[in-house]
């Protein structure tokens, strides 16, 4: 199994300030076809998770450009350049190389 | 637009069985692997298993193997997830999803209570 480890597990951010979440996988997520299958989701209370970033750094349709993803191999980061109140929720990294797919989640709240 | 629509909330007694459905709208279910994810109250996402509707092949997480059955009816574009021998710890929201495509069901709350 691939183990996905997120840090921190919780984050309290002042609106307008940046935030960063780390995700480390126990094995490389680089596929033999050259793509890296790492995704970031945001789950707001009472809702299913919503895709933010796919293949490490590609923003999904409609996702604000304050969200960015980076990384390679086993180390990945989600950054929010300026946190807004609507960004509260739990962020999950996910991989699709092997099962199971999810990290533990990082809870983001506003100070 | 692809949508996954799940069946409604369930209240079950311990030891009984629950079966949740997940219907695909806007496309054929054969285009996707359908995953099932458990989210216990206040907890994270736990992957339970998946089905490839094209051939019915399933894969289960070890924790759910033997107590959970995932199936699909391709003629109805619908997947199902059955949990047997319910215990209070099965109280959770269950999601179907077609990741890595960005399609998730709305979630189905299952409450197990005597």
Strand order of the largest sheet of chain A: 2-10-9-4-5-6
**Order of helices and strands of chain A, N to C?**
EEEEEEEEEE
Question: Biggest β-sheet of chain B, characterized?
Answer: 6 strands, mixed
What best-fitting shape of chain B do the alpha-carbon axes yield?
Answer: globular
Oligomer: heterodimer
How large is the share of residues in beta strands of chain A?
A: over 45%
Number of strands of chain B: 10
Order of helices and strands of chain B: EEEEEEEEEE
The biggest beta sheet of chain A is recorded as: 6 strands, mixed
What ranges of chain A have pLDDT less than 50 throughout 5 or more consecutive residues? none
The greatest interface here is:
A-B, 19 and 17 residues
Rg from Cα of chain A: 13 Å
| Count, helices of chain B | 0
The rounded distance between the terminal residues' Cα atoms of chain A is 36 Å
Helix content of chain A: under 10%
**Radius of gyration of chain B, in angstroms, nearest whole number:** 13 Å
Structural class call of chain A reads mainly beta
The mean pLDDT of chain B is: 96
Residue share in helix of chain B: under 10%
Strand percent estimate of chain B: over 45%
The geometry of chain A reads as globular
List keywords for this structure.
heterodimer, A: mainly beta, 6-stranded mixed sheet, 4-stranded antiparallel sheet, 47% strand, B: 114 residues, mainly beta, 10 strands, 0% helix, 48% strand
Short description:
The complex is a heterodimer of chains A (111) and B (114). Chain A is an all-beta fold.
Note down, in words, how this protein is organized:
The complex is a heterodimer of chains A (111) and B (114). Chain A is mainly beta and 111 residues long. Helices cover 0% and strands 47% of the residues of chain A. Chain A has strands at 4-7, 10-13, 19-25, 38-43, 50-54, 58-59, 67-72, 75-80, 89-95, 106-110. The mean pLDDT of chain A is 95. With 114 residues, chain B is mostly beta strands. Chain B is 0% helix and 48% strand. Chain B has strands at 3-6, 10-12, 18-25, 34-39, 46-52, 57-60, 68-73, 78-83, 92-97, 108-112. In chain B, strands 2-10-9-4-5-6 form a 6-stranded mixed β-sheet, with no helix packed on it. Chain B is globular and about 40 Å long. The termini of chain B are far apart. The interface between A and B is medium-sized, with 19 and 17 residues.
